[in-house]
Known about the structure:
The complex is a heterodimer. Chain A is of the alpha/beta class.
Amino acid sequence: xxxxxxxxxxxxxxxxxxxxxxxxxxxxxxxxxxxxxxxxxxxxxxxxxxxxxxxxxxxxxxxxxxxxxxxxxxxxxxxxxxxxxxxxxxxxxxxxxxxxxxxxxxxxxxxxxxxxxxxxxxxxxxxxxxxxxxxxxxxxxxxxxxxxxxxxxxxxxxxxxxxxxxxxxxxxxxxxxxxxxxxxxxxxxxxxxxxxxxxxxxxxxxxxxxxxxxxxxxxxxxxxxxxxxxxxxxxxxxxxxxxxxxxxxxxxxxxxxxxxxxxxxxxxxxxxxxxxxxxxxxxxxxxxxxxxxxxxxxxxxxxxxxxxxxxxxxxxxxxxxxxxxxxxxxxxxxxxxxxxxxxxxxxxxxxxxxxxxxxxxxxxxxxxxxxxxxxxxxxxxxxxxxxxxxxxxxxxxxxxxxxxxxxxxxxxxxxxxxxxxxxxxxxxxxxxxxxxxxxxxxxxxxxxxxxxxxxxxxxxxxxxxxxxxxxxxxxxxxxxxxxxxxxxxxxxxxxxxxxxxxxxxxxxxxxxxxxxxxxxxxxxxxxxxxxxxxxxxxxxxxxxxxxxxxxxxxxxxxxxxxxxxxxxxxxxxxxxxxxxxxxxxxxxxxxxxxxxxxxxxxxxxxxxxxxxxxxxxxxxxxxxxxxxxxxxxxxxxxxxxxxxxxxxxxxxxxxxxxxxxxxxxxxxxxxxxx
Amino acid sequence: xxxxxxxxxxxxxxxxxxxxxxxxxxxxxxxxxxxxxxxxxxxxxxxxxxxxxxxxxxxxxxxxxxxxxxxxxxxxxxxxxxxxxxxxxxxxxxxxxxxxxxxxxxxxxxxxxxxxxxxxxxxxxxxxxxxxxxxxxxxxxxxxxxxxxxxxxxxxxxxxxxxxxxxxxxxxxxxxxxxxxxxxxxxxxxxxxxxxxx
Lengths: 674, 198
């Protein structure tokens, strides 16, 4: 069969797909029948989410902001300008005044040169990306990555506890493995405030109050120790700190946790017993609980029950984007580098004048960062902003210089999925105009700034450098081997090593002592409390048919047709009280901002809670949301006229006309050059 | 006898891949780019709902212009004959027929920010029934079993969790035979006991 084999660019499942090209454009995407994770299937984003690649709005030339909008300039001009500006910032304010953000949407090779640029050229460790290493796991196990491979869920686990993950919508092909487990007779427990499609299929659904996950996990441990279900021999041989953890659990009886979490005590007891008694129990979690303390509590639970380091038993911590894991691995410093500085609060650092120049390589934080207004305000305070992206995104519009980046379908390299599987991605079509891969951008900029150390011929040479830099993880993973396989899970130290799907086998952890470092975790109530003015709790997340800020999926017509607009989930009871019908416009207001969108009147959310997504610029829930993921909110019915006015205002703020003008100029200048 | 596609709610994760696949193949052959199945979310169930192709179909009965006919084991709507009266939609007990606007000649795909364009351009109608868009007419659309595809319904092919299947004579007969076998086994043991003890 013809077509190029590559990896889906959306979520972190890393599904294998075949891309067919006709007349220089992608004509069809079909599933890779032999892929070990996606097993010959793809979700709608993988199958139909490719049309943005040939969208006429793609950036084809570097753009420079001028008095009358963005004007196209040559690469040489753009690179010289950036080099001069960054050199000046470094000279005047030191390396600390520069920060770089990368994303899980670019390849390992792109990320490697991004971090080399920050460290070698700018002399800073201030590298931020959307997927910080799972610190709670890193501290406990010495590795912040998912401990097992995805297919073990379907093949081995006999109990799966999902917490903080809407697997069905955010990782659809991983949800398939959960269903396979159920068909085999495995039990499914889901802790989620929303009746997601995983909750709907659970044998036991724990409808938890947002932000109280630690109380639930601690209460399960309290019960397990009280019942004597913990594995004392395993703990003694393979863990430190158990006594302190056990002592701190006193306050978390199932009854007291029930009052905090809203879950019946009997259900907490049932969940705790089932988890401890299972032959192989899997903890499936994602960004819903990416909080450091919650992950540490999960680690405590897994270790004290011995549910780790065996097939089907472990912590399946799901990443968000196709290469979130790889970005975290690479930026953690391959070999000779110091780990990146702990991510600071970027907008606050900018507003305090600490960071003066920012390079955003992929990602759209103006929409994806909570408390959007504050973030936008901070961008205005920067002396210099460079953005490299496929489109003139909401973030790119704030930039002084915008660089046209080659996308997933236009470059070679590797990406690492959530189970640490390093896979080859391949160029299928040529990038539009003068768009270039991120690695080329960072290398060219380094050379423009006088750094000759970065001179790679291409992705393979960069990967060879990475193999030398991190031999324990990557030395055994060559492009030749990746071409023969469906990827290899790191650590893979030698060319005859099969890769490591399961970490910490036999209770041997990657910590200096070789033992799991357990630590007591207390529920910290950092959520702002609901009150009379803001009686609702707003929670945020994704919809299955869009990804991130919609930059790619909203330009895929089929996906845009299925998900044309933002919906805010509102419980039936609340809808009756507010006289709102399904499909009416509602206004959600918080201390930070407001959003107007259509109401989806549904039992998916309980009374007093709201759910919205950040896929739509015209109704982006992050403009109202705070960092804690559950924000006090109020709801009012809104008229169509009000919605239309708000939208008109939004359009003025976001200025989509900028994109049209810039594209027209790029096209005119492209014609002039020919 | 009728044939139809049905979803197993225990396998459906509400991922909308069937919906996207449906629009995709119909669009490719020049039919209205509108999904022929609708994903419903209730307190108990998430699953796509589509036409059951009833043998004695109410929609066929009420269509005033005979645009709906039963042939090839399925109820078929001729989109060219349809006058957009929506009687079939009202008559359907499954809510499987939705009125959809045809797209103007040349595509007019929804694009990024499309909502803004539409809202800006539309004139508020006096009543929703009077709303219209130049170059479009409404026709009834419903599952046509992808009769133009030798591979059969596209939704079944693309579903990541194999939640959809085709029910035809063979499937119904097989299901009935299995149930008869199971029931007769139960009956045999009951009969055995009662005869011996009696």
